[in-house]
């Protein structure tokens, strides 16, 4: 809208007008025709008195003409309404021109509709009309030109938005400061507690047990001790006998006085028995611990006897130490630490690596307080370096492998084989991603697949989000097929106890691969069903998007006009007719667009040539070397499971494969390869191993196992196996959907 003086010049007027803060058709601002002005009053007054002196600045006149009806049928274009400053012109007479104020009723001639704004009213003017009458006359101007109540409120919001943004910024900084200071205070507290209690160490005693002799010792109790921990080291096994019969075992008997004794009644002796089975392979060494509750401050007696099939003595190491804090207290502290770590990871308060380090520090501080502070050497021994070596070696292999452009080549090959058909290409991309993630890290696979997938979606006019979600689903499925496809699989296969029970690389892969194939057969039709009503072609052409936007603007403009008079009703009717005409045009264009995208891509040969130029094998010789070394490493993984003569663990095989490929690839810029290694993930694993071992010393793992066993024992005996499988599977599925699967696997 603009203002015109007597001389025809334009002057700045009232505050800026915004129509829903969007661009509007340019005709809305450009259709300002006819300069005939009528004085305030009826529409048929003398036009010569266009602007009385006494009403200077009082009102503005919007001419109504026949051009508005023809304008509504013109072509579409977008432009913003010209802004008007709040300063007042020096001219004594103004005319306000706007296209929406024209009238299409030709039989009544040209009329002027008075338009008012509160800033146009001078102090000299007397308010002859009531406020209700003024609001009725002003309603048309506000509704049609965008100066509506919502626009006024939006203007107020804009004025307040800097204050709101400032408040939000201050609140954000306050929360950030509280987070930093809270975590810092927590770290300082844990550090102080960890430093106050020294590492007492364990005094191991060498025992030679035989069926003919028993070992016994009397221990004096401590004042502040509530638990007594007994450790045994030697050729021991954690589980019970694998087959019924006479098994060699050791019985540890702990005797102490009952706390319920009184001066008239002699305290009763309480005896606790602990049976430990011996390993037939005397060369293997393991450490086992058991915690007993100290009931009184009286002397505690420990007796050890052996049940052996031969008279030959068995060497055994024993150590004991008193601990502060009951089992319930330790379990509560461990649960709070684990819940805090999960909360930090779930809500992303800090990086997951830092969350695991904070949890490890808190657990070590708790162990120090109860009197079981481990030494630095002991803490380092808790880390499973075989798992870290396997991850590090595979990261080096993938970092060099990604330099060849193999992933881009696979994606373009899928497009070529699908001949431009959408669903054929999506299925091929998902299948290739699943196969590659079975032998490579699935996160790396998705990072390398994402750019070329987005490029293919641009060629086919697809929404890349749906295709990327499908690829993520299938990379997770494919990563579970082998022991090296996913970090949780690496944790499971690298566990020494499971490997002693026969769960090696080949056994894990053989069981999982069959199940994964069945899952893939179900997921392909499920994916098609999932996207049945989903618009894969969500990226519409720009002209359709602009047409929808224009329909939205015209409809809102028509809705803002209330039919209070014939002029307003006519304007509203014309606007609704314009909306109806544009909707018919949109329907025709959408029909044409969907008919085009439903057909097979006719230009796929041209597109494939362009894609092959941009996404091709960058180094064929390096690709051959990478495939050779990677194939050999995978072959050694399987061979290690079947040939006992190969004394190489999975970690050693991965490290040796990385060294071979580094030599063959002749890498000079070694820093680039090291930058692609996920050091944060390796440190996260190391902190998790320390955290879980510390929580095990706090009896959390033992407590969870006991509660799970009690829950399973509530089921009838013939159904316990099914109940245990269902419980573990569904608890794992639901928990890993909320928290990171790596710490959950380490916990389980």
UniProtKB/TrEMBL annotation:
InterPro entries: Cit_transptr-like_dom, Diverse_Ion_Transporter, MFS_trans_sf. SUPFAM superfamilies: MFS general substrate transporter. Keywords: Membrane, Transmembrane, Transmembrane helix, Transport. The keyword Membrane applies. It is a multi-pass membrane protein. It is found in: Membrane. The chain crosses the membrane at residues 177-197, 329-347, 354-370, 390-410, 422-440, 508-531, 622-644, 650-667, 679-701, 721-739. It comes from the Eukaryota. Residues 78-87 have a biased composition (Polar residues). Residues 342-748 form the Citrate transporter-like domain. GO terms for biological process: transmembrane transport. One of its GO terms (cellular component) is membrane. Residues 38-60, 74-94 are annotated as: Disordered. This is OCA2 melanosomal transmembrane protein. The gene is OCA2.
